[in-house]
């Protein structure tokens, strides 16, 4: 039971954040979200409140507003440095000000500052965003409302201005002073088959006899012990479509928002490879940092993250094709490869790998993934065996953009398939490294879908590369399409492909149609998929397609506050500000300039606490018992380093007898799972 408002945290300080309420609208495969943070100052002094919260990295945040004591204040999206200066100036002058920004080190963490909240004052801060919903292997659309922000491992010398570096207090779940509520409306012209949720819901209410719309709400008392995950099953999800959205009036001729935008959804009919691909170098990179010893969720008897990752890895190892090459790396503050270099996949090498996987523990300290990545990339390629990298991690790192950049630099020589393990895994890291390398990402929060997700990833890694991908538009005279999405370099069988374009020129009469054709080559054969669509743009006050198109562009160009190349930063700033979609280089700033008089008195800072999945007692007992030390439990760098940034000393000895074995044995017993593919 959540205690009444005014609860004091461990520092005996009142917590100004009282509740978070979310309104969710899902139409087909696009989600529109409005989240409101409700604050109240119950103290006798003015406050500055600071709150750090998670966000899915695919979210296009396009609106931020404050309602303060009945007065509405709209925020403006500005260059991040300018917004910070304006916020500090407003606070110093006694004005109320509100700041919303992405963290400088990760796209899936947001920071909210509430400045000069007067005694007795109430403020409701509302942010709005849209996002595409991914398609699961069983046809479900997956929406996740992130509720858990795990501690991120702090690299030495990492910037102090990251929200993740600031010492935001944490409290046990039972002491969390604010609540979460969510109401969702789901609609599809194809009809809703069923809706599943990992959290208790109020009874689902279907609207209409044809079940094309439904309304659900989160049951009272959500305790922030897990992300809220919805699985939505429509009667039909594989129908190609094109939606055209009207732009808005603007004086800027080069503004993305001024012209109609199109969102094209393809489901390419890619045939099975004949014969099946049996080559490849498969490298598995396993997170063995202390945080992997944590539970998948707060549910009773929840599996540990390291155990779930090991089960997934064992399944994949048993399913590899004969004749390929493979290796396994464990990483933390140092890294341990099973073999000096990738070895041929035989009964003997597989048995040795399985034996060592079963012995893996979350005992390597912090989460430093860059060095093992660079070691893998520095190795010689195996002719005829393209590199396929599988990464298993809870994503609790601060150098997210640096890792994504490293993967992108090497994207031409490999594909990366990433698995986010447990509640609160970083969507920025997991999705980012898969996106820039042409791979795919999966999130494993429970055992029920782990096997299907692992096998789907492996099956896709065994597909031949689709080549010569092109998109051709057949439009009426005077109308043309300008691509906003990056060029496609990878298409997988069973994958939904979403492409955004800007339509420029004279729009034809309402009855006119256009056609878009996706062409590609596979194993020397040419294929194409066509979609015909109506060219009459539809009005959407939220400009959803335009915002999603802007987000798609920003994900391609925006490599982080410190990592974005100078040549791309100008484009990122322009698209972000023109479209109102936040980036790592922009921030929302709102200033209440209509106060009758400046806020008086010394300003007191209050950091809103975050929940921890383990109580402090449980964590302490775990590391005292030998499973973790205190620093590993909380994701910190251990005082006693284990040769950080170098191979672990116990691996310096070559396992030559195992490394180079090339015994040609047949699949027996457990190796037969490859037939499932």
UniProtKB/TrEMBL annotation:
Please list which residues make up the signal peptide: none
* InterPro entries in the cross-refs: VIT, VWF_A, vWFA_dom_sf
Q: Where would you find the membrane-spanning parts of this chain?
A: none
Please give the residue ranges the record annotates as the region Disordered. 654-677
VWFA domain sequence ranges: 281-462
Q: Which PROSITE patterns match?
A: VIT, VWFA
One Pfam entry for this protein is VWA_3
Ranges for domain VIT come to: 1-131
Matches recorded under PANTHER family = VON WILLEBRAND FACTOR A DOMAIN-CONTAINING PROTEIN 5A (PTHR45737:SF6)
Protein name (database record)? von Willebrand factor A domain-containing protein 5A
